[in-house]
Amino acid sequence: MKNGLYHESMTLEEQMKEIAQRGKQASRALTSLSTEQKNQCLLAMADAIDLKKAAIQEENKKDLIAGREMGLSSALLDRLELTENRVASMSQGLREVASLPDPVGRLLDERIRPNGLKLQKVSTPIGVVVIIYESRPNVTADAAGLCLKSGNATILRGGKEAIHSNQIIAKTMVEAAKAVCPEFSLEAIQVVPTTDRKAIPVLLSLSDYIDLCMPRGGEGLIRAVAECSRVPVIKHYKGVCHVYVDRDADLEQAAAIAVNAKTQRPGVCNAIETLLVDDSVKADFIPRVTQMLWDKGVEIRADDAFREALDLSKMNSPGKIEPATQEDWDAEYLDLIIATKVVSGVSEAIDHINRYGSGHSDTVVTTNEQTAKKFMTEVDSAAVYWNASTRFTDGAEFGMGAEIGISTDKIGARGPMGLEELTSYKWLGFGQGQIRP
Amino acid sequence: MKNGLYHESMTLEEQMKEIAQRGKQASRALTSLSTEQKNQCLLAMADAIDLKKAAIQEENKKDLIAGREMGLSSALLDRLELTENRVASMSQGLREVASLPDPVGRLLDERIRPNGLKLQKVSTPIGVVVIIYESRPNVTADAAGLCLKSGNATILRGGKEAIHSNQIIAKTMVEAAKAVCPEFSLEAIQVVPTTDRKAIPVLLSLSDYIDLCMPRGGEGLIRAVAECSRVPVIKHYKGVCHVYVDRDADLEQAAAIAVNAKTQRPGVCNAIETLLVDDSVKADFIPRVTQMLWDKGVEIRADDAFREALDLSKMNSPGKIEPATQEDWDAEYLDLIIATKVVSGVSEAIDHINRYGSGHSDTVVTTNEQTAKKFMTEVDSAAVYWNASTRFTDGAEFGMGAEIGISTDKIGARGPMGLEELTSYKWLGFGQGQIRP
Question: Which residue of A186, A387, B206, B411 pairs with A232 in a disulfide if CB–CB is 3.0 to 4.6 A?
């Protein structure tokens, strides 16, 4: 087992507790590193990954061979592979994180009380963050780099098919950091050394040491983690996003936004799955948007009113359209398929989105400010747009510089999570001997 | 059962789902109430509580009679009783909440992206908040009022011994609000209508409808809730707070702070339980603080070095002092008892606090800015003070106007929780037709 610290004779419970305690210890040490030290570590890590590219690809080959033997699909094998480009983008990512401002120590609030006590609310690291992810080994470097910059220790649990890759990436990173910064603790980045599935609930029961878990992957993985965790989890299950075309929409703009949000990259969580159309504009809008969607190869699952607004004989080159079923309203296709529905107005659109949506990203297209305000206030999603594509919900598009995920939770971070979203806060009280009378 | 909406034939699961769904529906309606409407509701609730005082005390009497029959302790019966003063302070609390600024709709961040898309991060209600508490029925009005002002629907689950009191308080509140504001939903404040203990895990499994749970009470209750919950929980288990007297402390100030933090109100979570003394000042400081603690009737549990620094024959009026055991370091006495220990300096003090403390409130007394900075950075607690009593960790003392609890968690709110801490946020994107290229 990794670096000889774990004995085969230890139980799974003992192993996980050992890892969690070491993580907590390392997180304490991280709080006293300066911004310069953290950046120095990140740059050394990036250089080491470039330098040890061959060794990393060698370990990755072991995973690929084992994966082929296990019969992994070619899609999974593709995600698993660390090509030259992917190794380079890991080190490039670390250099970018080094160049971003330190999210720790920001002054969030300040007040001086009548007794002279000065209170400051300042951002702090969260502590120990467990990241659970699937087959992409580049997440190891990306997540650990973001956590280091935000002062958090990480415990990484990747897919078992990527264990060799994940271990050498983490080892390369911590050794490089230690070499340039002796105060850096080797346990600031740990890879769970066992591929036993039972390790996850054991690890996530250790709430005395672990402060947060972020699962990244499919809905099944995330539900399983949320179900067993005793530590806070920040997650998003899926992205069922909507565009609502209002009666006061600029219909050309509306069609462009809907088509972009569906087709620009259909496989991602901020692509839309459902298009809602105000009844008053259906005759004008539906034939127009349908043709544009078909031209992009999109299959439509439409309610009756939507289909009735189409005269198929008048369409240039008809594509696929089928009646929508109940299941279509909460489906996350991640594909060139869209559900469509005619609604009676903004209130029905809001109700539909709050009922079937996943609280991720939703857009209203309208020229009516009051309608937009109502939609933006009442739609209960992480990001709500007025006349823009849902595809902007993304750390880079939000100017965060880097992203560790997108949260649809409401406690802690919501929406794209960059460095600031990996922090907590504390209150500092500066006194001159104040006591409570 | 309450208002005839629950049938005896419904299972516990069906009942809880019904409550949770109604809560979610009510929370949607709350988002469109204006600040003025919310304040109008709060003031009407306050007036109604004053007006219906006799009826509320009548229902409270039922609980008191049943409580005496169940053999509740006199301390519990005292907490349960709604005296004239307590009823008045419920209505007064609601009026105060009405006078505070609306925590929803605050602009937390704003950025305009190169493509012209304007992004605003604004505070929003959390949604549906479950409050689980023990015998004090006044929590019903306090918690529901704070949640209403922050736009959240509440599901209240008080102690079974207070069910009649809790139900009439909630009923009085919602009916008064509905009378002045027809858009107010009666289900914005619900009391769980059954006293069945199994209702709690069932309710807290409904993460599709419930956004947050806040348990308030003893450690046992809070652990049980955290253990079974599938929704995020914000909590604090206990308050094991410390004062550390550094080698560079003003010893007179240090003694005053330690004695205040221990004795000003020993039964609360922000009172200290442990005093740590730097070895270099033990000869001067220990006899002085010991006499002051004894004068206040405090019993001391001291490590060897602390006891050896005392010459009992030279003390004026010796009080109780005993050797500390391992259990003393994480004990929450909530009483006139203090654990004391000599440490080798600020690093050992920080280690001790991070190991045994509860992450609540801790103080360093020193004139050395560098020592203070180290302590404030490295102690991982919600509130860290320099030369001030830990007793200031409190919503009113922090200028929050009202407090629903104190969190020792690091995801979501940390430290005293006022109205702002009962909000989440969302991102609003204002576009002019922007799409992703």
Answer: B411
Residues B41 and B151 in one domain: yes
Instruction: Note whether A391 contacts B436, CB cutoff 8 Å.
Output: yes
Does the residue A412 lie in any domain? Answer: no
Instruction: Let me know whether A289 and A160 are in one domain.
Output: no
Among A133, A135, A155, CA closest to A144: A155
Residues 6 or more apart in contact with residue A149 via CB below 8 angstroms: A38, A39, A42, A97, A98, A100, A102, A103, A419
Quick one: pLDDT band at residue A3, thresholds 50, 70, 90?
Answer: very low
Residue A360 is part of which domain span? Answer: 241-394
Q: Do B249 and B180 fall within a single domain?
A: no
Which region, left, alpha or beta, applies to residue B182 given φ > 0 means left and ψ of -120 to 50 means alpha?
A: alpha
Q: How many domains does chain B have?
A: 2
CB contact under 8 A, A380 and B410: no
Please list the alpha-helical segments (H only) found in A32-115: 35-51, 53-70, 74-80, 84-99
pLDDT digits (tens, 9 = 90+) for B11-27: 999 999 999 999 999 99
How many A×B Cβ pairs under 8 Å?
209
Query: Encoding tokens for residue B310?
Result: 């005392």
- Whether residue B217 is predicted with pLDDT greater than 90 in this model: the reply is no
Residue B6, pLDDT > 80, answer: no
What is the interface pTM, i.e. ipTM, of the complex? Answer: 0.95
CATH number at residue A11: 3.40.605.10
pLDDT tens for each residue of B94-122 = 999 999 999 999 999 999 999 999 999 99
Q: What single DSSP character describes residue B188?
A: G
The pLDDT of residue A317 is 84
Q: Tell me if A126 and B411 make a contact (CB, 8 A cut-off).
A: yes
pLDDT digits (tens, 9 = 90+) for B140-167: 999 999 999 999 999 999 999 999 999 9
- The reply to whether residue A377 touches residue B31, judged by beta carbons under 8 angstroms, is yes
Q: Which residue of A260, A380, A407 is the best one to mutate when testing the B interface, meaning the one whose CB has the most B CBs within 10 A?
A: A380
Q: Which residues of A touch B421 (CB under 8 A)?
A: none
- Residue A132 belongs to a domain: yes
Nearest C-alpha in A relative to B121: A383
CATH of the domain at A298: 3.40.309.10
Region A27-45: mean pLDDT is 97
Per-residue model confidence (pLDDT) at position A6: 58
DSSP state of B58: H
Are B95 and B133 in the same domain? yes
Cβ A126–B429 below 8 Å, yes or no?
Answer: no
Residue B96 falls inside a structural domain: yes
Q: Which residues of B touch A126 (CB under 8 A)?
A: 410-411
A211 and A274 in one domain?
Answer: no
Q: Are A189 and A154 in contact (CB under 8 A)?
A: yes
pLDDT tens figures, A323-381: 999 999 999 999 999 999 999 999 999 999 999 999 999 999 999 999 999 999 999 99
A399 in a structural domain: no
A168 and A217 together in one domain:
yes
What are B44-88's pLDDT values in tens digits?
999 999 999 999 999 999 999 999 999 999 989 999 999 999 999
Q: How far is CA B255 from CA B246, B305, B379, in A?
A: 12, 18, 21
Query: What chain A residue is nearest to B383 in terms of C-alpha separation?
Result: A427
Confidence of residue B5 (pLDDT cuts 50, 70, 90): low
Is the pLDDT confidence value at A101 over 60?
yes
> How close does chain A come to B299, measured CA to CA in Å?
21
User: Same domain, yes or no, for A211 and A269?
Assistant: no
The DSSP string of B335-403 is SSEEEEEEESSHHHHHHHHHHHS-SSEEEEE-S-HHHHHHHHHH--SSEEEEEE-GGG-STTTTT-S--
Measured distance CA(A264)–CA(A287) in Å, rounded: 20
A70 three-class SS: helix
Do the beta carbons of residue A31 and residue A125 sit within 8 Å? Answer: yes
